[in-house]
Structure formats: C-alpha cells, structure tokens
C-alpha cells in the first residue's frame, strides 16, 4: 500500500527541472527547457552604445546572438572571465540569446513543496524577475523567470510581439 501511495504522489506532484548556475556565491536556476546549449566564454563583438550588461554579439552557426553578462545585469560586481565562465544559450520566444554566468553547477528537480515564494522587499530590491526560491536541504536556489527578464523593456532583447 505504501508503495502505491508513493507512486501515486509521484505522479500527481509537479516537478520542475532547472539548470543551476552561479553568480558569485549565489546559485540561480532557470527552466531547463529554455536552454539550447552551454558554451565556453569566447570573445564577443561589442556593439556601440549598448548598455554595459550587453557584452556584444557572437556568430553562432550563422545566427547573430546577443550576449548578456548576468553579473553586470544583477549588479553583482565586476565580472571575472576564466576557465569556468560559460555562456548559456537560451531559446526564448523563438529568439536566441546568450547569458554569461560564472559557472554551471548542475541540473536539479524541484517538487512543489520545495518551492517558496520570492521574499517581499518592497521597492528596495527588484524581485520582478524572481519566480521564487528552491530549497533542497540547506541548499537554496534563486529561480529566475528568464522569459520575463529577457523580454523586459530594459533588456529589449526579445520583442514582445515574438511571444507565441
């Protein structure tokens, strides 16, 4: 009976699969289904007058892909590019965008009961792009709504009309 109950609960619980990446000492998670590939960090072609967080563009198999440095975007200090620095290539609303992160740690599965609502900070801290916090034991992962972030007016990397 206990085995059947566990099986039944396993079927009814929604599980989210997240790619976990690091920025400084913090771990962030994004929906694994948005990830196209993970690449080492290469030189980018700078674009004049682009915001500081847009590092530039790269040619990815014939497609010009904008590259966003998430450390700069989130105001987490000066980025350091080393052997662990990677670019996560995302597919969002039929557009390809790359984001530079300090490293990728793993892929995790979070059940509903491991998800917490984002904290309320009032207007002091911008939490618009934070879906919530994932907890597994002592580990805490900040879950980023990457579609909302990349389609924000400030980023302007994904045209709102591209949503489908």
From TrEMBL:
<dbReference type="GO" id="GO:0006935">
    <property type="term" value="P:chemotaxis"/>
</dbReference>
<dbReference type="GO" id="GO:0005829">
    <property type="term" value="C:cytosol"/>
</dbReference>
<keyword id="KW-0963">Cytoplasm</keyword>
<protein>
    <recommendedName>
        <fullName>Chemotaxis protein CheW</fullName>
    </recommendedName>
</protein>
<dbReference type="Pfam" id="PF01584">
    <property type="entry name" value="CheW"/>
</dbReference>
<dbReference type="InterPro" id="IPR036061">
    <property type="entry name" value="CheW-like_dom_sf"/>
</dbReference>
<dbReference type="InterPro" id="IPR039315">
    <property type="entry name" value="CheW"/>
</dbReference>
<dbReference type="GO" id="GO:0007165">
    <property type="term" value="P:signal transduction"/>
</dbReference>
<dbReference type="InterPro" id="IPR002545">
    <property type="entry name" value="CheW-lke_dom"/>
</dbReference>
<feature type="domain" description="CheW-like">
    <location>
        <begin position="15"/>
        <end position="155"/>
    </location>
</feature>
<keyword id="KW-0145">Chemotaxis</keyword>
